[in-house]
Amino acid sequence: MIYKVKKAKQSDKEKLYAYKVLSILDFNDMTKEEKQKVSNYIQKSIDNHVNAYKLILVDNNVIGCYCSYIKDDCIFLDEIYIEKEYRNFGIGTDLITKEIENAKAKKVSVELWVYKDNEKAINLYQKLGFNIKEETKNRYLMKL
CB 3.0-4.6 Å disulfide test: which of 4, 29, 66, 90 passes with 80? Predict the structure, then answer.
């Protein structure tokens, strides 16, 4: 599937927020109070990193997003989200592979968080060479 990536702008914050909420809620059952805390976190996160977000487009329609920025001498990937009907076409694998190539060129590592329940993503990351570096109750920090 042919896709394009473009940098997100301030005007894209609402779409980024929606995708980030979906990516978190797909793998978590939360109380109303927890959801509010997550909502506050997401808003702050997007405000702090909006320039690091990229929109994924197919036929000029936004079908997902991801965030990529330098953190502690590594490229940190965050909130890789692709709408369900566009999954399994290799878009996510291709995006991550390009980020890995970028990291190799810069001679830095790549890190990302993934929910433990997201077995499909964990398998993909492991196939690409990522290993579990840390873990919390619900997530793994994986590093290449």
Answer: 66
